[in-house]
Amino acid sequence: MRKCALSVMPDLLRAVAEATPLYLPVDTDKGDALFTRWFEGADWSGACNTARGPKDLFFPQTEDLVAFKTAGKTVEVLDIRREQEDFVVFGVRPCDVKAIEVLDRVFLSEPVDSFYAARRNHALIVTAACSRPTETCFCGTFGIDPTALCGDVTVWKTEDHVYWQAATEQGERFLAALDGFLEDADDTAVTAQRAQTAALLSRLPLHSLRADAFGGGKTEAFFDHPAWDTLSQSCLGCGTCTFVCPTCQCYDIKDFDTGHGVVRYRCWDSCMYSDFTKMAHGNPRLTQKERFRQRFMHKLVYYPENNDGLFSCVGCGRCLAKCPISMNIATVMNTLGGDAR
Amino acid sequence: MQVKEFKPLIVAFCCNWCSYAGADLAGNNRLNYPAEVKIIRVPCSCRVNPTFILRAFQRGADGVILCGCHPGDCHYTSGNYYTRRRMAMLFSMLDYLGIERERTRVEWVSAAEGAKFAATMNDFVQTVTALGENKRLEDLRCKA
Amino acid sequence: MQSVTRQDLLDTALEKLADGTVSHVLGWSRGTFDYEATPTLFSDPDTLRTAFVWNDFCGANLSKYLIKHTRRLEGRLLVFLKPCDTYSFNQLLTEHRFERERVFVVGVPCNGMADPRKLKAQADGILSVTAEGDTLSVETLYDGTRTLAVADLLEERCLTCKSRRHAAYDLLLGEEGEVQDSARFDEVAAIEAMSPDERFAFWQKELSRCIRCNACRDVCPACTCEQCVFGNPSSGVENKAASNEFEEKLFHIIRALHVAGRCTDCGECSRVCPQGIPLHLLNRKFIKEINENYGVYQAGAEVGTRAPLVDFTLDDPEAETVVRRGDDA
Fold this sequence. Notes:
The complex is a heterotrimer. By secondary structure, chain A is an alpha+beta fold. Helix content of chain A is 32%, strand content 21%. Chain A has helices spanning 9-19, 55-58, 94-107, 114-121, 169-177, 188-201, 219-222, 227-232, 240-244, 288-306, 318-322, 329-337, and strands at 2-5, 22-27, 33-37, 62-71, 74-78, 87-92, 123-128, 153-157, 161-166, 183-184, 251-257, 261-268. The relative contact order of chain A is 0.15. Chain B has a single domain (10-142), classed as Rossmann fold, CATH 3.40.50. Chain B contains four helices and four strands. Chain B has helices at residues 19-28, 50-58, 79-96, 114-131; strands at 10-15, 37-42, 63-68, 104-108. Chain B is globular. Helices cover 35% and strands 14% of the residues of chain C. Chain C has helices spanning 6-18, 45-51, 65-72, 83-94, 116-122, 156-159, 186-192, 196-207, 215-219, 245-259, 268-272, 280-294, 319-324, and strands at 24-30, 37-42, 52-53, 77-81, 103-107, 126-132, 135-140, 145-149, 171-172. The mean pLDDT of chain C is 94. Chains in contact: A-B, A-C, B-C.
């Protein structure tokens, strides 16, 4: 394990940013934090987590795929892809690192999504272990230890020091490049902090929430559950939960007519919307109840069924914090999980 | 290097009954107005949904002008009165968002006012030329 | 602190359910945390007794839910409406979105609602919140138990409350308030006073945060179209995501314009925005313009009035005059 004084972090981050584009959580004037490209004076936010996950850096909300140019009766296909450069994402929380694993299973399995893969292959992820979880956190429900080593490198921030440990070869190389800033350290402080954080986690309101009742093969147990009616009753059908979710991965592909050609782009889509998966006859999910059910069944049943039991919720708590009517996956799990067979 | 002279693209929505006929009259009378003005004929100024105006800017317009019958002369009795309120609201919103107010205009031009039509267009083109390219309400995809 | 208690509301609801006046009750239940409330439809007295809440976090305006529930359910619905919510209620009636006789409105006085965002900014790791008079006792993970004044946590819209008088009710609990002489247009005036460049920079920064989740539209009691133009592939302007700066502006300008003259300024749009964009400042701009150019108009103050943008007078000011007004000041 290596360490540096907290006071050298600005210089260290500048050195990283000078070598490779760097993204890190920075506080906004709205009282939240967002992953932001490093700029001179950018402070590493102390927020429990960013308002939106690092998903945007790998799978942006909107992205152009290909363009067409028409001239008379000919159509020219334009390759508008750009060479992806290496970049570093610093300060990713362990729940969000897990979320990237969830996305990887979707986008990196055959057929590989080359746009996503290009970004993933060029990214180095520096995880920031948690020491101040908040009431919306429930990563433990999905077996995530927010103090453990993950990503390419993990940092633990204590009162006056930052401890570093590499988890991959790429991470080792990254740390080697920062050698001038780091010194060797033992893990006493980190071990103490981890124990302290574990004690805090056990006091969180959602600490006892369990996912055991869910998983692959549970479609029949939950699909026709009577509680969906009441759970979805007040759902506005907005896309807030989906768009702040670090694992939601649905998108739509559309053509934009520029007046002299066409840009084909993709943008995030939400299963909560009435025009989601629209077919000739409309949306196959006619009511908000069905759309609402889809979102949670996907996270808790369908996804694990196809992905060796991995849930596609990581307990980051963003949807809990942002839902306009305070209806969320924790309430759904509590309501359905109690009488699961 | 030669700097290309800026020629604005102007979209003019013209009511079929008055302003479009006014434009016709301007032509018949051999009155000049800039070729940058692209006229879109509408059945009534009231047909112009605010979305049309924003879409015109999106597709590369540098200025949008809406011409209709004089208040009181609407072919459909009252269409232009609604237009007047609606456009007043849209334009004040654009102004509120910091988008140059001079890029939008409403003008009442009757079928007899060929000269007014030409003068209005000349003046509007001049104003927009002075403002330069529309940068605040542009869609880069349409400019590529 | 609210002047009527949970028990007052609960007794009324139970009584109306028991005597058959209504078959359902639309109110709030506790959300995941103490500082949240979920709009909830009750039909069973026992559930009502256990789950119903009325506290400083019942900000959600229930009026829009009446469209959905009156269509789906038989019988009459009891709904609790705060003064600002009753304006939305009247506006929905004006637009014939449901039938008046299907609803039994219980007017609830409101002293302003607390903003969970402000609460969370002051207390980290909130384990519980208990109301104690005009203060909240907040048990936290990191700073023990804190005592915070509700007055310091009020939502922006409550700080500029337009009315404490109900615009409609069948039964009023507690005492009726008055229309407020609030300074709700001050913020709009401050933006108007900026230079065009400053205004552009201000809105560019705000609107670029938009993630097009559509929460503002979906919560808005004035947005009741069966299908929104922005969600309709054949409308030609459908845009699902904020593709670029233009589309962010297009969506917000058109949405504000669609509700201009019908927006009651209930403030739900800004309350639900996950990105904290002050959307009410767009709607208020229109209300201010309408008041100053076409005469003072409060949407929802009465049922059946004609919204200003579907009305006119022969001597309305020209668009040019409206936009340039105030230039000399």
